[in-house]
């Protein structure tokens, strides 16, 4: 039920259905921004981003060759099975949801994919009432796959001085590569050149997730998914160079409502949402939710003041 976005192409969706009479099937990519309770009072907080329909039975037109998975399913269905195939457009978003609070019930807000087969006279006749018992649904998930080549990581630096002093503290931070997988340790290399007489008492590293919700309004917010302090002392007129290992994990952020996470299947566990990879020509508004991450390094000096932050993407 996981279909991979390989950046240049997306896995085809192929399923088999048995016990058919006259059946249509659709694959829909939708954005949900409200709870099921609101649907009951006539307010539908669900927007279809992309829908594709096809007739399964009776067979209409030519069909593509079956995949090995479909052949295996057809053997189980015997002569009652009918295979179908969908190609997902390259510009569609991956499955992503906003983490609900522990007390919230119902489906979470976010982007999901649903395969639905139904018995009907027409593919999409608004006047035709389709009975629930003539419908079956299956939630699938489109997941982001890393590009084959990984660029070198970013590097940033900043210099700050104190009042009544012309001396500076130089801070530089960098990471080895631009892309890390879920659960990977991220080595953050920090260089400090303290030309002042002040003492650097602590180094604080944070990882922030920025989520931009695009469909129903332009809503952009940032949540910290990792916040660690290291008691590293850098005396006045001295230098330091050290690598700190950090691992941002969803398991440490279970209580944060609104955090973007990869799409879930039923009650399976998931990860922090993968970074949205935008290709040339993609419509930003079609993505529903955009996710990005940044690393911040801050120094705490002996006077207790915050020296200022450095941001690297």
UniProtKB/TrEMBL annotation:
One of its GO terms (biological process) is visual perception. Signal peptide: none annotated. The keyword Phosphoprotein does not apply. Keywords: Sensory transduction, Vision. Residues 165-312 form the Arrestin C-terminal-like domain. GO terms for molecular function: G protein-coupled receptor binding. May play a role in an as yet undefined retina-specific signal transduction. Could bind to photoactivated-phosphorylated red/green opsins. Belongs to the arrestin family. This is Arrestin-C. The lineage of its organism: Eukaryota, Metazoa, Chordata, Craniata, Vertebrata.
